Amino acid sequence: MKKLVFILFALSIFSNVYAQKNLNFDLAFGANYPRFTDLPFDYKGDFGFNGTLRMWYNISDEFSIGVETNYMQLNHSNNDGAFLKSHYIGLPLLVKRTFPSNLYVAVGVGYLGLAASEEVSFRTEVAGSSIPAPFSELQGFIYLPATLGYNISKGLFVEINSLWGLSNMSKTYEYKASPIALSLGFRL
């Protein structure tokens, strides 16, 4: 009996489970540039940071479905000297199609804003310093992510992501965010 238990235990440790072969994890970091539609004031976009952790379930060699956790920092300033820094966490569901040429396309739907916060800094004329102030104007919003990527080598990839905001990101004003991001990542 001990031998049978030992053999079953050894086989379970050293054998591949089919579901594990179909799971992939991606980790990517990059820069983004904010784009806004229907913003009630003029703004100048500034580059921000983004980081992504994804889990893919491979249905076949060409098709995958996945979930993602995405941190995005959106920066922009207006003509009055205010610099706005927004922090978001996105949770999209994705479908990916991989082509034989190492290109892939992923689309989905997601919610951005679980950790929505905004820091507003106003420049003072006297010292030229910034004074941070809390700003609770933001709210989460629904968006459509689209990704075009290229697998550089085994495990290394580069991708460009675009998010199209479907709902307003402000409680007061009716405007939508559609940032674009360039990321470099690797498959775990």
Automatic annotation (TrEMBL):
Signal sequence segment: 1-19
Record keywords, A-Z: Signal
Signal keyword on record: yes
Protein name, as recorded: Outer membrane protein with beta-barrel domain
Lineage per the UniProt record: Bacteria, Pseudomonadati, Bacteroidota, Cytophagia, Cytophagales
